[in-house]
Amino acid sequence: MIPPPDVLAARLERARVLPGSLQLDALVVTHLPNVFYLTGFAGSAGTVVLSGTGLSILVDGRYRAALADRGFDSHDGPRVRVVPPAGGSAEESLLAMLAEAGHRRVGFEAAHLSVARHQALERLISSKSALELLPTEGLVESLRLRKDPYEQGTLREAGRRLSAIMQGVLADLRPGMREWDVAARLEAGLRRAGFARSAFDTIVASGANSAMPHHRAAERCLTPRDLVVLDFGGVYNGYCVDLSRTVSIGEPTAEAVQLHTAVSSAQAAAIAAVRPGARASDVDRAARDVLTEHGLGDAFTHGTGHGLGLEVHEAPRLGPLRTTGAEPTRDSTEILDAGMVVTIEPGAYLAGSGGVRIEDDVLVTSNGCEVLTTAGRELMVVDC
Question: Domains of the chain, with CATH numbers?
Fold first, then answer.
């Protein structure tokens, strides 16, 4: 679904100041999630040129008609126009568009423009143009950090749908099912619930596999006394949501109950720490301290969470402080603000035995947070 015109217009108003903030004439946007954020265009290839007067989008012939149908190149439509390649390469078309607009100092997304394409542009510039290409970092992403009301509503509905899928699959789990079979049910549930696709490879990790945080579903069968970590997500109207639960096949061992209790307490502490003005690393510390108190500090081998939105992994990173020399790095000191959406997903993993992870999606509100995923967090026991 394309965001409504008023939502896109508001984003463009905020984005128009980005090039000028760095004394640039324009910003070339090539990262497709950023292209979608600014235009609602969801094709497999497209480039946006953003300036203080608006934006243009460069696409090939596969998409021109679809964009024209939406009024992108009409005089009375949005301040967006389609510029079809006029022969030659995409790089030549882009430089022609920049020259036509009189742009000279042009930023590009350093994290998303390949070395090969950058070199091709520089070769063309040196032979034909006085244009200067300058690297930028995270400009459009800075706008995406705080979700607007449309995005919040989309993520809230996506979280509700994802939770319903989890509840349904939990009720169907049985000993003897392969991890693959469980993953297939989760992914089929995504389609039935209106998700376009999985947000990442579904994780179904049973028995000793549950001690591997990124294990992918395989042919192992669920057996009595297994802990099973279920971690899956979907893309709903362009936005990603993510959910994890851990279940026991048959009566859990005492160790499994203790492990789940510790992780559940760690997640509750981290969620309670989410509020505007909190440091992302402080949320991580809240979870990590609880697990350390339970003697599981070394068993927590990843960060507490990450941002969600058009990508399944976005800023901010909820992890321990990282340092470069004597100073914390920028991403480890991010401050949470209202409108951000993050996962809270502490875990504890005991090699050769099993692991537990509990994950929910959380919206930072003006006075705390709202949990968007509502599937039960208790250690569900599957009858054998």
Answer: 5-143 (3.40.350.10), 145-382 (3.90.230.10)
